[in-house]
Amino acid sequence: MTCLLGIDIGTFESKGVLTDAEGRILAEARCPHRMIVPRPGWAEHRAEEDWWGDFVRITRALLDRAGIDPARIACVAASAIGPCMLPVDADGRPLMNGVLYGVDTRATAEIDELTRRIGGQVLLERGGNALTSQSVGPKILWLRRNHPDLFRRMACAHTSTSYIVYRLTGETVIDHYTAANFAPFYDVERRDWTDELDDTVGPRQLPRLLWSTEIAGHVTPAASAETGLAAGTPVTCGTIDAAAEAVSVGVRQPGDMMVMYGSTVFIIQLTARRIRDARLWYAPWLQPGMHAAMAGLATSGTLTHWFRDQFARELPAETAFAALAAEAEASPPGARGLLMLPYFSGERTPLHDPAAKGAFFGLNLTHSRGDMYRALIEGIANATAHAIDCYREAGQPPARVRAVGGGTQNRVWLQATSDIARLPQALCERTVGASYGDAFLAALAAGLAEPGDIDGWNPVRQQVSPEAHDVYPRQHALFRRLYEQTKDIAHEL
């Protein structure tokens, strides 16, 4: 039996899956880790322990549970959170913790400086994106400014996935989709690194570019000894976790959109042409000839954990979220006039405002915990709808939407998003996530599948249709106004 291995490294947990060539799951495994927050606005992982360590632990667990000969694995694919910034020395050793994606806002000053120096229009045309907290370039400049000794020793700037592939194969590669987030160093028209936009780091300090389904290399004897994989097993270039998650639920043609309900909401829509809109992120898709427009909130599911920990400590951990969801369901749409801004870690798209602040607005003495929890869920849904507004305004209304992630188990959150954003959503049969998409990408790379085969691997099982509520159009307009009318105060705070 031919097998495929997919492993994904997430913000708080890593997951892995072994499948056969038809997508049947042979074994699953997961491994938790924590996000390190050394100071407000910073977010880090330990590359050796959290990224590579999780990959090793999950691989060995999967091989043990499936009881298969590792030589049966035709291909390995990994994905991970991103884009991250990990400087390594000439021997490939990390010089510091990995700096995470857009939730890490330490490089705000560098974003402003580079935008002034290069020019916003040049950045958008040449790099495809405005510089934001999602961009790796400003974080490399932050490293140069704040840790010049480490910068001088940096032989390469990795992201999470490229580091795992390096540990597996010894090859230093990155996929085009991830590389587009290394602004201002990636030229979207040339599909190559450029040294024309800034001299902070040169092409020789960045990984070699490949497409996600290209074979990057093969498992080395050293990696084989650590993971239990057979030496010589092909390894794909890999990609960012959200892209692999989109693959896992059949996002494969223009107009297809994924809405991922996780610690953050992340949205990917495939398009037939490049979209130029500074409110959204752009990247080439995983194979040549396809494009993607992305949006991402800074805090989403993380807020539900925050609310539980602060306001529901008396509830048993295993039932707390279900109890809170029931309380929210008992509150009417609109949470009885309560608005919530979910910008607890600033905001990514479409605001690109790391200084934005969270707020509950409209509280009175009759509001209950259930009203507040419903307002929190509706706040996330309103922020998601704000992003969907941008796609429509850019002439790219979604044609087919797949909802994924742990947050889809919260019926109030899922339905409120459909209602406020006027967005029909479909859920697929398998909810394994990005690691399942990795397994399918491995199948593509090994020549064992065609892109359309994912519909057979993971068919649709449920449809969620928008319900009309008179309160939501007014609430969404007030939500948009509340940020605009309070952002000066938020910035001063």
Throw out a few tags for this protein.
single chain, 493 residues, alpha+beta, Nucleotidyltransferase, domain 5, 2 domains, five-stranded mixed sheet, globular
In short:
The protein is of the alpha+beta class and 493 residues long.
Describe the secondary structure blueprint for this structure.
Layout: E1 3-9, E2 13-20, E3 25-32, E4 44-45, H1 47-66, E5 73-80, E6 86-88, E7 98-99, H2 108-118, H3 120-127, H4 137-146, H5 148-153, E8 156-158, H6 160-169, E9 173-175, H7 176-179, E10 186-187, E11 192-193, E12 208-210, E13 215-218, H8 221-227, E14 234-236, E15 239-240, H9 241-248, E16 256-261, E17 265-271, E18 281-284, E19 291-296, H10 301-311, H11 320-330, E20 339-341, E21 359-361, H12 369-393, E22 400-404, H13 411-421, E23 425-428, H14 434-445, H15 454-457, E24 460-464, H16 471-492
Parallel strand pairs: 1-5, 5-15, 9-12, 16-22
Antiparallel strand pairs: 1-2, 2-3, 4-7, 6-8, 10-11, 13-14, 16-17, 17-19, 18-19, 20-21, 23-24
Helix pairs in contact: 1-6, 2-4, 9-14, 10-12, 11-12, 12-13, 12-16
Q: What number of structural domains do the residues give?
A: 2
Q: What is the CATH class of the largest domain?
A: Alpha Beta
Strand line-up of the largest beta sheet: 3-2-1-5-15
Q: Pick out the low-confidence regions.
A: none
Number of helices: 16
How large is the radius of gyration?
22 Å
Shape: globular
Q: In percent, how much strand structure appears in the residues?
A: 15-25%
> What is the fold named in CATH at topology level of the largest domain?
Nucleotidyltransferase, domain 5
Biggest β-sheet description: 5 strands, mixed
Mean pLDDT: 95
CATH superfamily of the largest domain: ATPase, nucleotide binding domain
> What is the architecture of the largest domain at the second tier of CATH?
2-Layer Sandwich
- Sheet/helix structural class: alpha+beta
**Based on DSSP secondary structure assignment, what is the total number of beta strands?**
24
Please give the alpha-carbon distance between the first and last residues: 60 Å
Which range best describes the helical content: under 10%, 10-25%, 25-40%, 40-55%, 55-70% or over 70%? 25-40%
